[in-house]
## 1
Amino acid sequence: MEMQIKSKKRVQQLAEIYTAKNEVILITDLIKDLSEKIDSKFLEPSCGNGNFLCEILNRRLLRLKKTYKKKMDFEFFLIKATASLYGIDIDKDNIVETKNRMFKTIANYKNNINNEKIFIILKKILDTNILIGDALKENTDLFSSGDDLIFINYTSPKMFYFKKIFYNFNDLKLNITKPIKTEKITYYLDL
Ligand SMILES: C[S@@+](CC[C@H](N)C(=O)[O-])C[C@H]1O[C@@H](n2cnc3c(N)ncnc32)[C@H](O)[C@@H]1O
């Protein structure tokens, strides 16, 4: 049976009631085109154990499998599909579970992947995109630092290459879109 709560204490402390699978499907259907678009960006600011992120990732994987028969193409677009999904949750266990579930979703498609390095790269991307943090924290200090959440925009200026651009989540909330750092363009297997 599907469990929507872990404990009464966690419901009280974290408002932690997971969305049921059928509701996740119905809600994601409302944004069907965007959810399946390989590199459209999603940030779930209270992602729980990853119900929505896994649903979106799975839809994208199905699409990738149909579209890209060459493994190199599949790998490149898989990185794009994963790197455009972001999550925050205040609870460490939820973040660990989200990352594990997303990784398992990807591992179901291992036959479409040629280079084992892809799994290491995707683990690194999940570590930088799915973060422990307080998404509601009010922070109006332009020069804040320390526990700020940093997100990476994985842009791809050309096929098989990525360029990482780093943003402070606090800046983005204040509509400041100036990056804090930009890295040089990198071949996808060297990410
Ligand atoms: C109602 S659950 C929803 C989980 C998931 N989005 C889903 O639909 O299955 C709310 C989630 O918000 C997280 N949460 C509570 N306060 C938060 C905060 N200030 N910042 C980030 N996450 C928070 C909880 O840990 C919990 O996982």
## 2
Amino acid sequence: MTSAFREDPYESESAASTNPQRPAARPMPGPRPMPAARPMPAAPTRGPSADQTQIVLVGRAGGGKTTFLSAILDGGPDPDVYGDWRAIVPSAGSALIDELQASVEEQRFPTATVEAATETWTIRGEYRDRVRKRILARSVLEPGEKLEFELVVVDPPGGNFLAPGTTGILGPLADARGLILLIDPTRMIPAAVKERTEPGKELVATFRYFNRLMRGLDAKLAEQGNKGRLPHHVAVCVTKFDDPVVYAEARDAGLVMMDEGRQPTVASGDPAKAFFELLCRKSVGANDARIPEIINARFRPERLEFHVISSIGFYIDPDEGFDEEDSNNVVGDGSIRSHNPINVWETLIDLYESIRSEQ
Ligand SMILES: Nc1nc2c(ncn2[C@@H]2O[C@H](COP(=O)(O)OP(=O)(O)O)[C@@H](O)[C@H]2O)c(=O)[nH]1
Ligand SMILES: [Mg+2]
């Protein structure tokens, strides 16, 4: 493929990631670390639904926004670590919810978003009872805390991020407390880009989406009187980790470990950040190498989090468990074999907690 990048945002998306190349086996280090302990908050003083935390998903066309939402709708986080959480959608339903539900039931990816959807979901959670050590070395069981917040779901076609000033998305983005910034590695890793780009089509560089979004957001907030860095809490997420090309890249960089023996993962925090930086540095789009430094300059470092996620996860055989030789979760026509999302709910809850810790 040539290195020319085109302006048209609506490049075609390959439906399935089916790379026949199998990565070589390599031993993986120990179990997943527990997330850093958060201070136990005092009993909430406000009514549960008073929390209007707005979190918005941001990412290029085909980057995995809608599929991320289907994993939120269809699942929950690891209950041993996070307790019980679920998403409650408006009872009136919507075209987006219908499509997400149909895609889950039919074990396929949601269809490409054509019309921007903006709706509010309620995220409700209850942490497990926690054992706390008190003075005099006595262990005390504290009841798990109940939480509820609003997730403002803005799911525009990714192309809207190329012209943010005219497509009405800057308002919700400027109002949001949290951004989930999806980075699609299959539009960066040369082998993946080559495999997926149709002849005659050129790739819109990730940097173009990112740069226009940043400039638009900066301008909008400056109009509202913001000085200095952007105020958002940001979860930077490398998506599609289950894709064989993406997995191989992370594994070859020595960043993969087994998640409690279940399936491979890249730990959130420094390892995920290292993978994100490596992808930007090696990307087919030379300008993508600048994305990490721009993120560091635009947002406050203590409000940045890094995750490597997959909205579908790897294929896990119900009897045999994970087998690298048979781990491709997307087959043939784009059917999804099993539902094992990695770090999707965890990203959402961690981001919410990061916002809440400053409220
Ligand atoms: N392997 C894999 N592919 C994914 C994943 N999420 C999205 N995709 C692929 O990317 C395509 C676009 O995803 P979508 O969620 O519609 O992206 P959006 O345009 O950002 O909403 C899907 O049709 C899938 O082919 C994932 O977690 N794993
Ligand atoms: Mg979409």
